[in-house]
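hi! just following up on the protien thing from before. the input was this:
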Amino acid sequence: MTLQNDYILGLWGADGYHRTSSIGLTSIYPELVERFYLFFKTKFSLSRVRLRIYTNDGEKTELSSSMNWYRGKVVFCKGTKLRTLAYQIYVNSRPLLREFREAITNRLMISSQSIPEYFSGRFDGDGSVAKDLRTDFRIVYANFREAKIDKAMLKKIGINNSQVYRYRAARTYVLYVSRYESEALCKLLKPYSAKLSGLLVTP
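and the predicted 3d structure came back as:
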C-alpha cells in the first residue's frame, strides 16, 4: 500500500484524526471530508469507511445537500459548543496509519513538483490569506518542529521569505510568507486547493 497523494498528506497533517488503529480527517467542511472519502475509496471497500457527525446534542439530524455524495453508515455523537456540524471520516487500518506517520515524518523527501499539492492540503486545513492573496498568508502548527520542516520545504519551490512565529497564549506556531512571495505561492497552490479555488464556504 502506497500513499501517492500529497494533498491528502498535507490535509491530514493539518486536521488529521488518528487513534491506535484508525486514521482519517475531522473537519467542518464537507468538501474536505469528501476528498478524504474519495482517497479512501481508492484503497478500501466502502464498507470499511466510517463517518461520525458531531452535533451539540448528539441527536440525529438530516444531512445537507453538500453531503449527498456519502454512501455508508453514519453515527451521530455529542460535541461541545459547536457552531456548526463537525464531520469525522475514518477507516480502521494500522498499516495506513503507519504509512501516513512515516510519510509526514519524511516529507522533506517529497519531490519539488509535488510540494504544491502537499501545501495545498496543509493550507486548506490550517491556512489563510487575505483576499488580495498578498498579505497575511499563514499556516498554523501545533509545534515548532513541524513549522520549521515546512519552512524548509517552501525553499525547495523558491519561496525563501517566510518566518515562524510563536504565539504563547494560543500555544501555536504560525508560518508566515512574505507579501512579496505570497501571491506567487497562491498561484502554485490554487490548482489543488479547495480554499483558494473558492470551493469552501464557512458554514
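Helices lie at 6-15, 30-41, 94-105, 115-126, 144-156, 179-189.
The mean pLDDT is 91.
cheers
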